Batch of 3 targets.
Target 1
Amino acid sequence: MAAGKKPSRPLTRENVVAAHERIKRYVHCTPVLTSQSLSKLASNPQDLAAFQASKHEISDSTSSDGHHTPAHPTIRLFFKCENQQRIGAFKARGAFHALSRLFSGQLEKGVITHSSGNHAQALALAARERNIKSYIVMPTISTPSKIAATQALGASVHFSGSTAPEREALVAKIQEETGAVLVPPYDDAEIVLGQGTAALEFEGQVKEMTAGSGSSGEGGGFDDGPVYGGVGSEGLDAVIAPCGGGGLLSGTATALANTGIKVFGAEPSFQGADDCRRGLLQGERIPHVSTLTIADGVRTPVGEIPWSVISDPQKVHGVFAVSEDEIKMAMRLLFERGKCVVEPSGALGLAVVLFNEEFRRMVEREAGPEGWNIGIILSGGNTTMEKIAELYAPAPASSQPLSNANGAASDTKPHQEDVKHNGAPSKHELKREVGVEGMNGEKVAEDVAG
């Protein structure tokens, strides 16, 4: 673990169970769904064109053992629908748990955080339910719909520049004035334990579904039919969670420790957003990330406390990255096949299962012909029709490949708004200039916690 950052409470499965007891009356036990069609798709080899294309996106996604043909694993998918959680994302779990651990004297002063979206709404909701004041510092570039949602939940929203020093300075100023207690977005033991409750529920729900005892109304299929006809093992063999700050992934790993269920992380590769994957390869946490991946919920480096869990190979068995196009394809499949709306970050796990050849070959090798029951946490669904339409707007035919963080060409097509017209800055460049302009006019690329 990084020096100077220690969890306030031991990160153990027992403490996740205790966290669930504290918050279960405040949060939804979200449904677990299955899909015969998506499982069949995941169990078929990628077509050769897609397989060859993936080699140019992420070098680590190709097989390291010299294979030149796509993997052919057997996969049965289960989806934990945290996109149907209160405020539309798993973040409600951590916020409610963090507040449950504060003393009444602390709560009287209110709570404060800095966030651009889901954590802001989660803390505002948890504070409203406890009848306490919440102060949320949001960058001026935050999505208008998320600002409005946070305000609608009764929070006092304060705007800052997008750099970490600016956000932290404003938080400190408000704390000095109000005495409010800081509730971090992810780098906090109580947050991690709260987020782990999703995996705790997931484990029990799938065990019940695969045992043939029914789902008590909390499980079912995207498409009609029995839960894979009783084929395969009972319960989950593996779970995949998105990774940004690492609260959900480390909470999942903590909840499932010593259960025999393997835990994996999923990240975007665009512009170095796969800091967790790269950090594991380097053997140290990467403290800074600057990326404009479409998966805006994970545009942040892994926190020190989550890293202490994620970097333990006994708890997290690997982290895998996917391209922007692969995230969009997974989103589309969830929408069209599963009638399920998720934000880009929520589609990361399915994208890894469908397109990351390193992961797929590992499943083929370790699971054998019986295959695995793989759980995917759909972490959130906070998007809008306008954002989805913008995301899938066709790019001009003359678009050139973008470059990744290492300067290598990426075969992910640039977003339509990323293309310059007659030398003028693209819309995304203009947005980014607004987003990284500090209070004193300096331009600094900085990430914002989700």
Target 2
Amino acid sequence: MSAFSSIPILDLSLARHSETKPTFLAGLRHVLLEVGFLYLKNVGVPDQLVRGVIREGRAFFDLPMEEKLKIEMKNAPSFLGYSRLDAETTAFCIDHREQIDLSTNHPVPTPQEPLYHNLLAPNQWPSPAHLPEFRPLFEEYIERMGAISIFFTSLIAEAIGLPADAFSNYFDKDQQHKLKVVKYPDLKELGLEEERRGQGVGPHKDSMLTSYLLQASEHKGLQVQNTQGEWIDCPPIDGTLVVAIGQGMEALTQGVCASTTHRVLSPAPGTGARFSIPFFQGVSLDATFESMDVPETVKELRRGIVGRNGGRLDDVEFTFKKGRYKHLGEATLMNRIKSHPDVGERWYPELLAQIREDQKQEKLDKMRESEGFELQASATG
């Protein structure tokens, strides 16, 4: 069996009927064990709502810069709001994108709550004087996608032999989910016409359980890495969302549902900006990640697939390393500071300094490891 060379398409409507649900679960199990990425069609979001969030999302970037800066992310410690072009980093490199981060609305946390509860906060919305439909449309979309994501997670549980409610304890009653609206300028707009390719988003794995990408323009750019290190295109397909399995799901299922590395390339010169709207299913920030009791037969299937494919490609940092953090919220906060150092400098300077020291040590360790391999090779050559 070879590494995957295309992204499967599953029809969620099959999971809503008892006679077709087994077929859906069989297809989902294949995706979970062998790919970690899929297209999902017939999701259940009205077409009119999808068209509305695409329209309003794209219109946001046409606002005057002074309007966007009124809701800039670094205004608050929640990591919600507008990020200027090139403000975020992935894999130690700048991402050529601008975006607005939104979430399920929460009140401002009290001083007595854990520091990571700063992530639970009100949104910074663009002025209704400029975009009167933006807030109501995105609030409805986030609410609908929250329900769909929790339903889909129950299907993941069933597909790997767990009870449908196996993940329920990891969700709050008023669970926060997150969403981004992203613009990736083309290489000409970026002034990088001579570059062979630009980094829209560097290689990474999504952090939580599942994420759902609405590709809001016709550009290619999203690529998924298989176990052979090959980058597989994941182009837009009308009427679908692209679903990624996150590192949280991998941690909970003892590696059975492996998260998959992916990236976004900047659009080619002169092709215009690429737009996307990824939705990220939330998990309780107070949760601790204890592994599920996944059936041994399923774990053995996964081990066999990994072995036949020549092992796993693990060149992306894993968020949920055992023993590093007690709660998911701690790991999530540190990841946000790492990705948005401008917010870290303003609100979390001590944690940012710790992250930078850790990154220096990580680079030193990699250099020493590389030098050790070179010395070993020269000694045996």
Target 3
Amino acid sequence: MASTEIVEALQGLEDASATQQDKPAGYKKLLDQILALGSASEDFSANLKAFIDSILSDNLGIVAARPLLGAVVESIKTISDPDIKIYAGTTALRSLEPRVVSFEEQDAQLREMLADAYTVQEEYIEAAKVLQGIQLESSQRRIPDDHKVATWIRICRLYLEEDDTLSAETYLNRAKNLRHKVDNPELILGFQLSEARIMDASRKFLEASHAYHSFSFSTVLDEEERTRALSSAIICAVLAPAGPQRSRALAKIYKDERAPQVAEYGILEKMFLDRLLSPDEVTRFSQNLAPHHMAKTADGSTVLAKAVIEHNLLSVSKLYNNIGVDELATLLGLDAQKAEGYAARMLEQGRVSGSIDQIDGLILFDGVEPSAEQGGSGQRRNVTGGGLRKWDARVQGVAEELERVASMIQQQQPV
């Protein structure tokens, strides 16, 4: 509850006998008095709320109230304790809510200040939500396109901090609509970086790797951030589906003279040279990965495990002309059925060239390097794996037809 002294002062200012010309100066003097008591005072938030409610009442005009409310916002910004700042800011927002249309500028300033405080506390979702309340499509004030895009990108990046890619992408798409109107290099870079992080989280690893590698050359970023971008490019390239497109991405990064400086260079080199990866190497590499890189896929394996299995299978195809399914399973650390399934899928998608002999339990590699058109998009004009499945279906059809004919003969000529 507000202190008696402040309540009495506010009642005096609200009195009908007080002249309108004297009220702004009286409110300003009272605000200075509230601030003089300090934010640590038990009555500070209550005094501030009472003050805001008073200046938003009908006894003071909008024109006079706006600079006073702006002064309140500036006073809250000076509070050093984030908890008190958040409490005072949310209290002010609640008081302002019924008349926010008349005070959109002050409302936006309060929300940006609150977002800063929540970010300091690492409460990123709360920071994003409070920024969402800013009226960016307003008829009351003109808002530059740069400011709109900056706000949407900030909300996007806050959601990305909590791995909420769905919400992040919503605000990135809003920024995308005004992307062509923005010339600020830092804003453009922030947009591109957010887009890359969303592609990364959405498992579009090849596109993300290309974007991260481009950022690593940006002069807007400092040296540490460029190194981090290069590291992210390697991680995404490693996690991308094995095939010609990934091989090109690995080659591009491997030839970068800065690559040996990052911790992930060892696994990059082995993948580029088509060498088999050992479990120990994979374990060391996994220590630097984000949680979504270790997420489970539809078949129960992690994103990393699937990428390693596919890479090792691709490496086997370049080491051997043929290999037994059981031997392949041993090399991949899988059972025979799963190993054959991985091989069939990569053959069907054109990422490995060869065929499967199910009768002898062999996988035959023809040594032909699949082209990017065949292997990267999941489509191929002459798909060996697809041919195998068609062959299986035809064999099954013949067997079923033979069984039907045998049943007819038995019905007509019983023994």
